[in-house]
Amino acid sequence: MKNNIKVERAIKGMTQEDLANKVSVSRQTINAMEASKYVPSTVLALKIARLFGKPVEEIFILEKTD
Amino acid sequence: MKNNIKVERAIKGMTQEDLANKVSVSRQTINAMEASKYVPSTVLALKIARLFGKPVEEIFILEKTD
DNA sequence: TACAAATGTAAAGTTTATTTTACATTATGA
DNA sequence: TCATAATGTAAAATAAACTTTACATTTGTA
User: Fold this and answer.
1) How far from chain centre, in Å, is Cα B4?
2) Confidence class of residue A20 from pLDDT cuts 50, 70 and 90?
3) Across the interface, do B43 and A57 touch by the CB < 8 Å criterion?
4) Which of A17, A1, A9, A15 is CA-nearest to residue A48?
5) Whether B36 CB is under 7 Å from strand D
6) Within its chain, how far is the Cα of A8 from the centroid?
7) How far is residue A25's CA from residue A32's CA, in Å, rounded to a whole number?
8) 3-class secondary-structure state, position B25
9) Please, which residues have CB within 8 angstroms of residue A53's CB and are 6 or more apart in sequence?
10) Is B47 exposed, middle or buried (0-12, 13-18, 19+ CB in 10 A)?
11) Cα of B43 to nearest chain A Cα, Å
12) Of A28, A50, A60, B44, which has the highest C-beta tally within 10 A?
């Protein structure tokens, strides 16, 4: 699975820390997510999508290997 | 977070095991998810939503406590 | 009723998400 | 250039997802 968090965050002009605070996770979690180092929970995905005003499917994209 | 998996599964006429096989998890994982015993990963949520032909947000719903 | 399928549940184990702390590197603005 | 903000990264610890095995209960149906 890949994601567009970095792009959406840039559109909103937010830092990783800003986003982390808004969705109540650590900055490292955001950083690792942007680097696709792990798959976030559905709660986190829903919060991020809601914050960015886009559907989950537009931000998190399944890949063939998933 | 709550979810409508049980309802959507009934609409499709699938058993927990059917669904488990389709999204490559164990039947117990589906059973526990339906009982909201834990929050699934985003990959799993995307697979389930795709299978049901509905957006993630229609199947997984954030609550105030999230 | 009886049998089978479906569901519920539980415990132990493995894997993975997330936190915390800490430091190094990179960008940016005065 | 200097200072500071932002980002990258890493290791250790904790929490949570998910698996496997196993059994009990419920439900549908012949």
Assistant:
1) 7
2) very high
3) no
4) A9
5) no
6) 8
7) 11
8) coil
9) none
10) buried
11) 7
12) A60
ipTM, two decimals, is 0.94
Beta bridge partners of B41: A41
Tell me the longest C-alpha to C-alpha distance in chain A: 32
Q: Nucleotides on strand D with an atom closer than 7 A to protein CB?
A: 5-11, 16-22
pLDDT tens column, B19-44: 999 999 999 999 999 999 999 999 99
H/E segment holding residue B31: helix B27-34
The DSSP secondary structure of A1-66, one letter per residue, reads -EE-HHHHHHHHT--HHHHHHHHTS-HHHHHHHHTTSSPPBHHHHHHHHHHHTS-HHHHEE--TT-
